[in-house]
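Long-time lurker, first post. I've been practising inverse folding by hand and with some scripts of my own, and I keep getting stuck on stretches where the structure tokens seem ambiguous. Below is the full token string for one chain I'm working on. Before anyone asks, I'm not after the true native sequence, just a reasonable design that respects the backbone. If someone could post their per-position residues I'd love to compare against what I wrote down in my notebook.
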């Protein structure tokens, strides 16, 4: 199967017309701040996710040109997307089941992540994904694309949770670290990082205590924190109101009653909750007081 054949297969995922978008940037035009959307608990093979992603970006006028990944936890490789597909097509022994921390992107250079325009990162091992766009791209265009991408990503799949955030490029915020914070109410990224990654064992040199989201987060109605946009699962939508978290209301009823934003179905078993900026702090405090947040003090 050649590169052209792979691309032909890719376009089965997303059949929207290609849009004319000015995606090129010089380095001095980049803000080196990014608007990101993280998705947790998404399961797919790297190659199937890559095919879907390349197609969806291209259909919206954002062609992806390069890849970067950790090969078998042994070495990082960066190359053009075309070269990557040619490599796996011609070398049947290439370990495509051992591609970790995989980025697909376009940018000024492959070498420096803070010169990348936009792209997506996926870890099949950790079941995590992050979309990113430099904030030189208009926010309304990026949000519209994220919504469309999530609809495609989750059409026949599901995720546990997800959230929109704005931070400096390549900050590592999604991974959860003590001193990387958005200053949300009582936020503590380290607790989120330990929950989703386990704890690093310096003696063994490995992360321990983490396997799957099912094992570490059996209560699927919890959240990292509350953000301007939040990806909800069936567990969030069907929160057992007998626990008194929202009185006698389900989450959607509680949101509507208090004018805490809008919810729209965005996938097979996922919904997107968008909260007005002026209501965000109130919602964060309520969820903290109810013990629903993980990435907090």
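-- Answer (accepted) --
I ran through it position by position. Result:
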């Amino acid at each position: 199967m050649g590169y052209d054949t792979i691309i032909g297969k890719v376009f089965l995922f997303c059949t929207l017309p290609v849009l004319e978008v000015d995606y090129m940037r010089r380095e001095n035009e980049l803000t080196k701040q990014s608007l990101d959307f993280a998705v947790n608990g998404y399961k797919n093979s790297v190659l199937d996710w890559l095919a879907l992603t390349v197609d969806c970006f291209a259909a919206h006028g954002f062609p992806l040109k390069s890849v970067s990944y950790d090969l078998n936890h042994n070495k990082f490789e960066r190359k053009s997307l075309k070269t990557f597909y040619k490599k796996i097509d011609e070398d049947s022994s290439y370990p495509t089941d051992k591609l970790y921390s995989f980025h697909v992107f376009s940018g000024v250079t492959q070498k420096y992540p803070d010169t990348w325009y936009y792209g997506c990162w996926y870890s099949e091992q950790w079941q995590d994904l992050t979309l990113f766009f430099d904030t030189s791209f208009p926010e309304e265009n990026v949000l519209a694309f994220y919504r469309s991408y999530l609809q495609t990503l989750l059409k026949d799949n599901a995720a546990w949770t997800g959230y929109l955030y704005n931070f400096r490029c390549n900050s590592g915020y999604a991974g959860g670290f003590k001193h990387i914070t958005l200053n949300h109410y009582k936020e503590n990224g380290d607790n989120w990082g330990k929950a989703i990654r386990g704890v690093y064992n310096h003696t063994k040199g490995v992360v321990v205590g983490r396997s799957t989201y099912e094992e570490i987060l059996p209560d699927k109605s919890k959240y990292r924190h509350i953000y301007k946009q939040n990806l909800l699962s069936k567990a969030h939508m069907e929160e057992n109101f007998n626990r008194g978290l929202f009185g006698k209301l389900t989450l959607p009823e509680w949101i509507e009653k208090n004018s805490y934003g809008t919810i729209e179905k965005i996938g097979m078993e996922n919904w997107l909750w968008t909260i007005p900026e002026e209501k965000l702090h109130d919602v964060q405090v309520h969820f903290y007081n109810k013990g629903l947040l993980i990435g907090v003090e």
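A couple of notes from the structure itself: The first helix runs from residue 3 to 10. DSSP finds nine helices and 13 strands in the chain. Happy to go over any region you disagree with.
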